[in-house]
C-alpha cells in the first residue's frame, strides 16, 4: 500500500451562510503526519466484497476551545484491484448546527492499494456552540478506469467526534 499526505491550515472568512472556514495551503510535518500515516496503516480491511474504498475520519484532539485549533484529518484507500477516481469531502458539524468545510471536495485518482491522507489545523469558529462536534468524511467513487462505477459500491463515510468547550 502506498500513501500520500496533504496538509492545510483552515480557518478564516465565511464561505456561505452558516458555514465558516477558509483553506490556505501549509506544510504539515512531524507528529500529525506520523499519526495519520500510522492511522492509515492500521485501518481495518473492508468487511464486504462490495467495498472498494475505505474512508477514515480522525480528530486528533478530544477537546478544543472555541477559537482554538483542532487537528483533523481524513483519508481514503482504494481497496479494489483497479484504478479508481474518488471524490473525498471532509467537514465538521458543530453542536449548534454550524457547518465548517475542512477540505473542499477533492477528486483523487488512486491505483489499487493506494491511499491519500489529508491533515488540517482548523480554527474552531467563534460562533460555534459548545458541545460535541462531528467530523465527517465522505468518499464517492466517480469512475473505475474511465467507466462509471457500479451503484452498489460507490460510497463510504466515516465520522469522529471532539468536544468544543467555551474559550477560557
Give an account of the 3D structure.
Strands 4-1-10-7-5 form a 5-stranded mixed beta sheet, covered by helices on one side. A 5-stranded mixed beta sheet has the order 6-12-11-8-9, with no helix packed on it. Strands 2-3 form a two-stranded antiparallel ribbon. Mean pLDDT is 76; it is low at 1-38 and 41-50. The chain has 168 residues and is mainly beta. It is built from 1 helix and 12 strands, in the order ββββαββββββββ. The chain has one helix at 31-41, and strands at residues 2-10, 14-16, 19-20, 23-25, 53-59, 63-65, 69-78, 84-93, 99-110, 114-123, 131-144, 155-165. The chain is 7% helix and 56% strand. It has one domain (2-12, 21-165): Immunoglobulin-like, CATH 2.60.40.3880.
Care to give the gist of this entry?
With 168 residues, this protein is mostly beta strands. It has one helix spanning 31-41, and strands at residues 2-10, 14-16, 19-20, 23-25, 53-59, 63-65, 69-78, 84-93, 99-110, 114-123, 131-144, 155-165.
List the helices and strands and how they pair.
Layout: E1 2-10, E2 14-16, E3 19-20, E4 23-25, H1 31-41, E5 53-59, E6 63-65, E7 69-78, E8 84-93, E9 99-110, E10 114-123, E11 131-144, E12 155-165
Parallel strand pairs: 1-10, 6-12
Antiparallel strand pairs: 1-4, 2-3, 5-7, 7-10, 8-9, 8-11, 11-12
